[in-house]
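Thread: "does anyone have the structure for this chain?"

Original post by V.I.:
We have the sequence but no experimental structure in hand. Need at least a predicted one for the grant figures.
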Amino acid sequence: MFLALREEVEGALEAALAELEFPTDDLGIEEPPEDVESVLASSVAFRLAGEAGAAPPQVAAQLAAEIDTDELTYVAAVQTQGPYLNFLPSDAYLAETLETATEAEYGHLADREESVVVEHTSANPTGPVHVGRARNPIIGDAVANLLDAAGYDVDRHYYVNDAGRQIATFTWAYETFDEDDFDTEPERDRIEYDLVRYYRVGNAFLEDGPEDEVEAAEAEIEAIMQGLEEGDEEAYDRVSEVVDQVLGGMTDCLERLPAEFDEFVKETRFMRNGDTDELVDRLQELDEAVYEDDAWQLELDEHGIDKNLVFLRSDGTTLYTTRDLAHHEWKFDNYDRAVTVLGEDHKLQADQLRQTLELLGNDTDQLENVIFSWVNLPGGLGMSTREGTGVDLDDLLDEAIDRARQEVEDRLDDRIRDDELTADDVERIAHQVGIGAVRYDIVSKQATKAITFEWDQALDFEAQSAPYVQYVHARCCGILAEAGFDPAEPLAASGQPAELDLDALDADLLDTPAERALLETIARFPAVIDEAAADLEPHQIATYTREFADRFNAFYRECPVLADDVDPAVRETRLALVAASKHTMANALSILGVAAPRSM
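Reply from O.Q.:
Generated one for you, tokens below.
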């Protein structure tokens, strides 16, 4: 309803300004401070004071007098507070919010009929996913979820680097060495942990092996790369045998987050279909193209980029960026928008890519990048740092589950609900809370800011962390279950054990400050999704969940739902508010990729 109210306020304000012959280009609409009862406010009177020849409070009064709230549906009154115009919500606004928010998909926006491809993670398939890269799949998955909730048709892509020197080296090592060459067992019983040993042994051999054998190995690695460049099926099959196995294991790891993909797009695709060759021809025809230092390059300094883009080696092999240019032109042909999630170390390459795409005649307004900074792990995490591997994402997730399990077990005696948690329940909650804590702590921070992951903060049930907001959902489920409803189903769904007539509910009965604040916060949820999607900033959803949790907890403390002395009509209306709260929190957590537990 907030979006509808905002649209109504914009229209009324524009009409009032036009009637008074004031410009309508800047309405000054904003959300007021918490101590102001209105839902929206406008500071437009500040801007108009000079033109009107009157003090801002007088201009505000003129505008308020010009707006007839009898013609508005969601605005009950327009009040002035000094130079500000405050727009108060109507009964219809609150009633429609309560009704729509009890629907399972509440918050999701209408279909925009616009396609978006979100590319994220795209880590080289050379071994287990390292925790230093964990921010990419977490932010990328949340961005994709956010755009989906905002009404876009979203595809999630992982761009697979299967043509570079690293993969050629891996392929050679896989075919050259065997179990007798390894000093250690795989760190986990999963394929990428097994195969990464070939990669490490191969690289060590290239550094320290006999000169003649290293020379032969380098020749074979070069032959693999040349074979891929020439579209040789045998070379492709050899590489794919390694890449597909490692990628399968990495995918299993990412599914734990969870982060899933609609398509794994291999860069060799654009070599084998001729797109890369055609692109190289076009690049060589550009005025910026030069051949120097045994390579074809683009001089981009006149475009504000002081490092050349190398796109073709002297031996005729292309580079990752060359193939990625073809990849992006393919995206532009197949999607309305292309969003890429990148680490800050790829910012230069992203700038080079965008500028080159423009030189090639592409409309790069379609291309948007989400740049993230690194996640740091403090000392004393209780996780091993293995030689040559650092801390893997699997290590972090295991540690999170272990710590969450201990926290849940420590809190069993303090639970308010009288239901018995089985060992399976504890394990389920440990997974939901532990992995949720990792995801929430990472996605809740603005992507461009470096963060240090701290266990005590991430798993604090009392602070504004994942368990804190997850507990709101669990508490809503507990109230609904105690009232005889199945929390997994909407209140109006057929087959609910209990009955509640949604059409007979009176939102006016929610008249306490805590109830109104909660309902007004629920009403804002679709607008939060809309704004966060426009900015590609899922952390705005996390910020909203913390505010929402505060509002719900105030309601829970001050407004009993099932107590014997609660009027039946008030009881049913508050139950609907609880159900609306459950859907709001569940859908917000779903965007963040955080589980919404039914019990904790």
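V.I.: this helps a lot. The radius of gyration is 29 Å.
O.Q.: and The longest helix spans residues 568-592.
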